[in-house]
Write a structure and sequence with these properties.
With 270 residues, the protein is of the alpha/beta class. The chain folds into two domains: 104 residues, NAD(P)-binding Rossmann-like Domain (Rossmann fold, 3-Layer(aba) Sandwich), CATH 3.40.50; 156 residues, N-(1-d-carboxylethyl)-l-norvaline Dehydrogenase, domain 2 (Orthogonal Bundle), CATH 1.10.1040.10. Helix content is 50%, strand content 10%.
């Protein structure tokens, strides 16, 4: 379920909800507020699928590039918007746990923003360059642009009051400083990301927005990078790199540009 379909889908579901029923967002982006605006906050839960790396490669056939994570990494993080561990959150956790490792989180919003940062760093780039994750990471210019996207998103999230311990197994503060040009931080993040890309099977997938662009579908750029730009303005933080990417992806989506790495490598940003 794409973010731009959340409103009408929730409205359709609402009439069928039992008195004790609820709606769970297992999506990218931050859609709980949209859902709650239709069914109420008391009937809204969220779940994050962390580093799940899935691809719908044929009708009804989903492929996971990284395989199951199991005890190495908790994929599903289910939570209430108020942070308490409830029976219904545990029930949802049990259901998604049939697919892979799962937990109930007391920090839904922090987990949600952490996943947003991950998506902000790769999805739009894949959409406008046509590249898979591994090739983007191995390209110095694109990797550093990606770090800047993540850095801006982290700073906006921090200003909004979200707390998160990691972003794709990277320390958020180190990643933020890397995107801001700190040499030591950039070296540490580069080493981590390149090691991930060079491991067997590392990054051999196309992020979801890249898949959408290939299939000619509407993208979620306004719900990811565009969302970071809008949220940043609310707290007085500019996110120029995210704004640039939002514009490029929008132009590719409209057919004004063709996917090409040059959209990023030819940029001259201060």
């Amino acid at each position: 379920m794409k973010s731009y379909d959340t409103g009408w889908a929730t409205a359709l579901i609402r009439q069928y909800l039992a008195p004790g029923g609820y709606v769970v967002s297992l999506q990218n982006c931050m859609n709980e507020q949209t859902i709650a605006g239709i069914v109420g906050w008391g009937k809204t839960l969220g779940s994050i699928a962390s580093s799940i790396t899935v691809e719908l490669h044929a009708p009804g056939q989903v492929r996971r590039a990284a395989g199951k994570s199991g005890s190495r990494h908790t994929v599903f993080r289910v939570g209430e918007v108020h942070g308490r561990k409830t029976d219904r959150a545990k029930e949802v956790c049990g259901l998604v746990g049939y697919a892979d490792s799962a937990m109930v989180t007391e920090n839904l919003w922090g987990e949600r923003w952490s996943k947003l940062v991950t998506n902000v760093m790769g999805n739009g780039l894949s959409a406008c360059t046509g590249m898979i994750s591994r090739d983007m990471i191995k390209n110095d210019a694109i990797r550093h642009f990606s770090n800047r996207l993540g850095s801006e998103a982290i700073r906006v999230g921090q200003a909004l009051g979200y707390t998160f311990d990691e972003v794709s197994h990277m320390d958020p503060e180190t990643l933020a400083r890397a995107g801001e040009g700190d040499p030591a931080a950039q070296k540490e993040i580069d080493e981590h990301r390149l090691a991930e890309a060079n491991r067997p099977g590392g990054g051999e997938h196309r992020p979801s927005m890249g898949q959408d662009m290939v299939k000619g579908r509407r993208t979620e750029i306004q719900f990811l990078n565009g969302f970071v730009v809008r949220e940043g303005k609310k707290v007085g933080i500019e996110a120029p790199t995210n704004a640039v990417l939002t514009d490029i992806v929008t132009r590719v989506e409209r057919g004004e540009l063709k996917p090409d790495p040059k959209h990023i490598t030819d940029l001259r940003l201060n």
